[in-house]
Amino acid sequence: MKLKDKKVAILVEDGFEDLEFWVPVMRLQEEGAEVTVVGTGSQPGFTGKHCLEATPDVTADEASAQDFDALVVPGGWAPDKLRRYDSVLELVRGMHERGKIIGIICHGGLVPISAGIVRGRRATGSTGIKDDLINAGAEWVGDEAAFREGNLVWGRVVADIPAFCRELVAAIETG
Fold first, then answer.
1. Strands 152-155 and 146-149
2. Which domains does the chain have, with CATH numbers?
């Protein structure tokens, strides 16, 4: 198990992309990581775009960057909601400032945009946020399924989940 003793947080809010949430959760657990679901505190449980449910273990107010080795930001409609919470943005900034791995897929890029951590970095995601990333100062990469840029691991869309998970596991394993 490559990620034994690693602690990974994954963000959730209503409208999360079900596969971009659940597949990384299961893949990280398969590698031995302890996965903590972090919600906004707006409600006790959340429903994905395709009706799968997720219940947070803690709220973003209760989570601290020092408690985790990595953070995952799934896509869907949830990132547009997540970015409205100061506690979520503080968690993302705290992880980034400590050089910890942050995995971002599809529309998940909206959260690090609002956290102010994408300027000058290569980035990808759904083409729906291409302009947002460029306007935030990132360099758009549209032809790679997944890649690591410093401490950020990027994935494009649902079809790229296998490549995203491979990059994410490798990044967390090596730090």
1. antiparallel
2. 7-174 (3.40.50.880)
What's the distance, CA 125 to chain centroid? 11
Residue ranges in the chain modelled with pLDDT below 70: none
Grouping H, G, I as helix, E, B as strand and the rest as coil, residue 26 is helix
pLDDT digits (tens, 9 = 90+) for 150-162: 999 999 999 999 9
Rg of the Cα atoms in the chain: 14
The kind and range of the H/E element at 9 are: strand 7-11
pLDDT tens digits along 82-99: 999 999 999 999 999 999
106 catalytic? Reply is yes
The verdict on whether 51 is a catalytic residue reads: no
Which candidate in 50, 96, 106, 165 is catalytic? 106
* Residues 131, 136: Cα–Cα separation, whole Å: 8
